Amino acid sequence: MKILISGGGIAGQALAYWLAHGGHRVKVVERFPALRATGAQVDLRGQGIEAIERMGLMGAVRNKLVDEAGVAFVNAAGKARATIMANTSGRGRQSLTSEYEIMRGDLVRILNDATKDNVEYVFGQSVDGFDQDEHQVVAHFSDGSSEEFDLLVGADGQGSRLRRAILPEGFDPYWRVGIHMAYWFVSRIASDGDIRDTYMVPGGRQIMRRSHNPSETQVYFVMREDSEEASAIHRQPVERQQEFWAGRFAGAGWQTERFIDGMKTSPFFYSQEIAQVRIDTWSKGRVVLAGDAAHCASPYSGMGVSGGLVGAYVLAGEINQHPDDLPAALANYDTKLRPFAEGIQGQVNPRLLRLGMPMTQRAIDAFLTVTGLATALHIPDLVARFSKEDRGGDWRLPDYPQLQAA
């Protein structure tokens, strides 16, 4: 088939990889003017690790892994009160930090290197709309041109425009948890180690620091807030977003001033509301959604990237298995993947998240005391090593003979 993918991120490129491997003619359009190989640190877990292995890309991924040995909860002086190490035993489940931590940009480049010779990429262009009938879908591009395809895939992220086009008008696809996040890079200093630092601030606020190379450190500001201002800030100009976050965290202690100062010169800055995408259908006719556009699980699931890789594999597998029956392929995609997608979304429990973001200093002190005792007794390590399932549960990747020789 002739297939158009809107969105050149992780899910879009993974899908392009499998579809091209199946012999389809694949075109990817990306609204950014170049490969969007930026972003913060992401991880692979459970079925996402297996999906990368089936692509034959684990070697390339291992070569780019970030050295993050664990997660420390620190006080205002920067002293670790509790540390949970990564589970590198090869069994059980990953802990708060995965054995497979990688920068989003590096994973995007790995996928692009694996697809650029077999897939047509067009940057600086987006799909503004489409028309379809039972035989074809006509995509209308931002440059005014149009083109016919057999299938249009919306892999255009959590804020997907194509999703809005196939859902009923006024339908809200988002399940919100009342948490917001911003992240950016600052210059690394000598005290920035390979353990991720987490610092809790009264008022349901949290600061994280993690370092991914010798010169850069990532900063994350996270907060609990249900206000309209917080939800709206993510659509404002970057300068206004930075003012908002600096104001919310001013005087928070630890290294806050360093992080706010570094915000102004960071190579990128990203602000988002933590939300999941929950919709009853992922396709309409010859248009189908993939990755975060279909089933965003949120960063707190720990399975966002893995979910996108798994979803791309299943969608391509069903299309390759039913090349002459697209309705059956898309129906099977939904039936097979939805239990997995809903399972990883269900891992996000707003009550547990709020426990990890206390409102008072007394509650923060209690959290650190309990967590410190648990780590002293090695409870998190034992739980991780002897767990029978990772965050994706016991759901198994389907086997598709057409994809085995990748």
UniProtKB/TrEMBL annotation:
Q: Which GO terms describe its molecular function?
A: FAD binding
Question: What Pfam families does this protein map onto?
Answer: FAD_binding_3
Q: Which domain of life is it from?
A: Bacteria
Q: Where is the FAD-binding domain positioned along the sequence?
A: 2-342
What name goes with this protein? 2-polyprenyl-6-methoxyphenol hydroxylase-like FAD-dependent oxidoreductase
